[in-house]
């Protein structure tokens, strides 16, 4: 559908970034997502090596003012399906005018085109990470053909009353070292083989999305090293925009993982406890992370055992794209399989963010943890 009369749209330029950051700040006053982005963050997100900003990101102008922004971003690597992440925001003063619908229509078309141009031979998936706090987003996505696929919990804890340090025989807990960056990448790829939406991160996407980010804090990140190999890790980030908005420093744990061969030894609790201690010593006020509620290692229970509590809920909505060239009968069978394996939505789910999950019991809190979320507009919660 076209944009409302009087509005124009065009590709994003670097000169737009301060105005787009101001749009996000205005939206956050209403949306309460808990995330803040400055112009430097947005430049990292939308001018990454795998993003064609002139084609993949658009701004909607109300005269000279930026009224909305939309991005369609596809990281280069994938496992089960080629994921195209859609993200955007409409200024609160212009909501209800049809801008969101028009922008989403463009994003869906662009996402389909990206899939067709880059990986038509593979299944594709358009994804939108919806904030439960943004009114009207669910209805917009349902009308566009999206269905809820996954739930994510934003969790945090204060850096007081920290868990006791832990030791694991034959393992050293050390701060992140740049000489081990490639080892950490390989460990991450091994740790996330079975996780929803994860992919084998190549060097380019690893640097752009993780350790090459301006927010990455090697001094607050912890590695578990045994026999010269990285067995587990916590990668920490401090976002200047969050600090400026809240007045407090939060250590955000974007990636936590243990390689399969080292699981069952208590490494997850050990590296998390060490990371919390490092953040506290550096003057951080809190630590936060995000977790898939269907995480195969039941990580949410472990994080709750480490003092984290649920603060907000996000839902990943998706549209599945069949590989091009498949006959209609095969596409139909594939669509039915996707539908049967998608977690069904029921009233009352996800649970209200009231703290401890009733499904977490003492027998499950020793499960190995693996969590990865790239806190970037347009990248969903990519592993």
UniProtKB/TrEMBL annotation:
Read off the InterPro entries from this record.
Answer: Acyl_CoA_acyltransferase (IPR016181), Bact_Acetyltransf (IPR050832), GNAT_dom (IPR000182)
**Region (Disordered), start-end ranges:** 345-383
Membrane spanning residue stretches: none
Q: Which UniProt keywords apply?
A: Acyltransferase, Transferase
In what ranges is there compositional bias, type Low complexity?
A: 354-383
Q: Where is the signal peptide?
A: none
One annotated GO molecular function is: acyltransferase activity, transferring groups other than amino-acyl groups
Q: Does the keyword Zinc-finger apply?
A: no
A Pfam family per the record: Acetyltransf_1
Entries under PROSITE patterns matching the protein = GNAT (PS51186)
- The chain positions of domain N-acetyltransferase read 7-169, 171-326
- Mind telling me which CDD domains this protein's record contains? NAT_SF
Name listed for the protein in its UniProt record: Unannotated protein
Taxonomic path? unclassified sequences, metagenomes, ecological metagenomes
